[in-house]
Design goal:
Elements lengths: L1 E5 L4 H12 L6 E6 L4 H11 L3 E4 L2 H8 L8 E4 H10 L5 E4 L7 H9 L3 E4 L3 H16 L4 E3 L2 H10 L7 E8 L17 H5 L8 H9 L1 H14 L6 E5 L5 E7 L4 E5 L5 H9 L29 H12 L3 H17 L6 H13 L7 H16 L2
Parallel strand pairs: 1-2, 1-5, 2-3, 3-4, 5-6, 6-7, 8-9
Antiparallel strand pairs: 8-10, 10-11
The site of NADP nicotinamide-adenine-dinucleotide phosphate has 28 residues, from helix 1.
Length: 378
């Protein structure tokens, strides 16, 4: 399988390369690598994996990259068109989209339009553009394969069953780094406090989004599109141990659960080898003395969760606005410019000011720009 890995320098991207290193090298190879600005790491990856095409953020990064590597058998592209070309013109059999943020949507659409399967870590593709992705999927022979651990779990649980057997799906949330903080101290949380995720080691934005539960709302939306389930049949609960990744309640009341030690390499590998599980040297469950706790999502602690789901019910470009605003608000929080609690209040304010707009690639770009500018001044 020839893979185009988009976002190769990130948390998922680097773990994906570790996974491929341990799979059969006669079966898996890298056709394309795409990254943003981490040219130094990308140049090391190019030396190791010998792709035919790579893409970086802009022309400055492309120039910098060409000084670091032998370019004789390599095409260096940049920007959105470069990312798209890595997805649909690199002869890849599968795209693993691990770009962060709205930048990932166009390459997901491009790969599916070219009938190339997409292993999807970039949840924003479905959060912002779920309706567009769905339309393309209906005309395409390609499949979307979940990489997110919760969706990988649900995918595996749902695989042998028909939709009429399913009553609801249940997604678990760790609750993030501030899960046990007193509510009246949340506004004092520093970036260092929030980036200390209790169970997962992830990129900065998704770690902050885990503490606000923006990430969990995104996952509910992702599940809605991936599994074609109405929101009324998707429940999210806080599960501090992060051992149960997903559950499916059947129509006879029985619940199937997917359980294992948290390790993103497992769902990444499954997205490449499914429906087969292949051996992995991962930590194993120690069942004795292990407890499993589940709590409801408290709106006072996680107000952004309901704001996001309200936007999901509105449809159109509302989620494009909130996703863009969240990117800006998270950056401002990480830079020490706004308190943690202003991420949620900022999202609420953006939704109040948003003018309902139909969803197209062009409206996404306009709404995205409006939301970024507005969120930068809140
Ligand atoms: N990390 C996890 O455990 C996890 C779990 C489930 C789902 N996800 C999802 O997977 C996606 C990636 O997450 P992550 O944690 O791996 O993020 P990350 O560590 O921040 O990495 C993001 C990657 O995207 C690249 N990138 C950013 N902007 C780009 C652009 N405009 N064009 C091309 N490449 C760009 C970055 O390149 P540079 O670094 O070179 O700038 C980097 O390679 C997100 O949607 C996230 O929600 C992550």
């Amino acid at each position: 399988m020839k893979l185009a890995l988009l976002g190769s320098t990130g948390s998922i991207g680097t773990q994906a390369l570790d996974v491929i290193e341990n799979l059969d090298s006669d079966v898996f190879s890298i056709a394309a690598l795409a990254a943003g600005k981490n040219v130094a790491l990308l140049s090391e990856q190019i030396k190791r994996w010998q792709p035919q095409v790579v893409s970086v953020y802009g022309s400055a990064e492309a120039d910098q990259l060409s000084t670091l590597i032998d370019t004789s058998n390599l095409e260096i592209l940049h920007g959105e068109q470069g990312l798209i070309a890595c997805a649909n013109q690199s002869q890849a059999d599968r795209v693993l989209n691990a770009v962060v943020g709205s930048a990932g949507l166009s390459s997901t659409l491009a790969a599916l339009e070219a009938n190339i399967d997409v292993a999807l870590a970039n949840k924003e593709s479905l959060v912002i553009g779920g309706e567009l992705v769905q339309q393309v999927l209906q005309q395409s022979e390609a499949k979307l394969l979940p990489v997110d651990s919760e969706h990988s779990a649900l995918w595996q649980l749902l695989m042998p069953h028909q939709s009429q057997e399913i009553e609801k799906i249940i997604i678990t949330a760790s609750g993030g780094a501030l899960r046990d903080w007193p509510l009246d101290q949340l506004h004092q949380a520093s970036p260092q406090d929030v980036l200390k995720h209790p169970n997962w080691n992830m990129g900065a934005r998704v770690t902050v989004d885990s503490a606000t539960l923006v990430n969990k709302a995104f996952e509910v939306i992702e599940a809605h599109w991936l599994f074609q389930m109405p929101y009324t049949q998707i429940e999210a609960v806080v599960h501090p141990q992060s051992l149960v990744h997903g559950m499916v309640e059947m129509c006879d009341g029985m619940v199937l659960a997917h359980i294992g030690m948290p390790d993103m390499k497992v769902p990444i590998q499954f997205a490449l080898t499914a429906p087969l599980h292949q051996p992995m040297n991962t930590p194993r469950m120690d069942w004795v003395g292990q407890s499993f706790n589940f709590d409801s999502i408290c709106n006072d602690r996680y107000p952004a969760f309901s704001t996001l789901l309200q936007a999901a019910e509105m449809g159109g470009a509302a989620l494009a606005a909130l996703n863009a605003a969240d990117e800006v608000l998270v950056e401002r929080f990480l830079a020490g410019n706004i308190p943690f609690t202003q991420i949620a209040s900022g999202l609420e304010e953006i939704l109040e000011r948003y003018t309902p707009t139909a969803l197209t690639i062009d409206t996404i770009a306009n709404v995205d720009q409006w939301a970024r500018q507005t969120a930068a001044c809140l």
